[in-house]
Amino acid sequence: MGDVMDRAQERGQEWLHDQLAHQAVRAARQRSAVQVLDCEDCGEPIPAARRQALPGVRRCVGCQAAMEREQQR
């Protein structure tokens, strides 16, 4: 029974390690993302609060909503 429990513990540790590694990669990508100041669709400034809340954001709220509506069609 010990071997089964040891292996389950080992797999749990591997899973946790993988999850933490993926989280670190995502965080690094967000930090290194080029900050876009103006919407790529309409050219209007993207508010600082939106850029801070969504690192790497490329569209203003209106253009993002329009794009998402178009994708749902």
UniProtKB/TrEMBL annotation:
Gene3D superfamilies: DksA, coiled-coil domain. A zinc finger (dksA C4-type) spans 39-63. Keywords: Metal-binding, Zinc, Zinc-finger. GO terms for molecular function: zinc ion binding. Residues 39-69 form the Zinc finger DksA/TraR C4-type domain. SUPFAM superfamilies: Glucocorticoid receptor-like (DNA-binding domain). The keyword ATP-binding does not apply. GO terms for biological process: positive regulation of secondary metabolite biosynthetic process. The keyword Metal-binding applies. PANTHER family: DNAK SUPPRESSOR PROTEIN, FELS-2 PROPHAGE PROTEIN. This is Zinc finger DksA/TraR C4-type domain-containing protein.
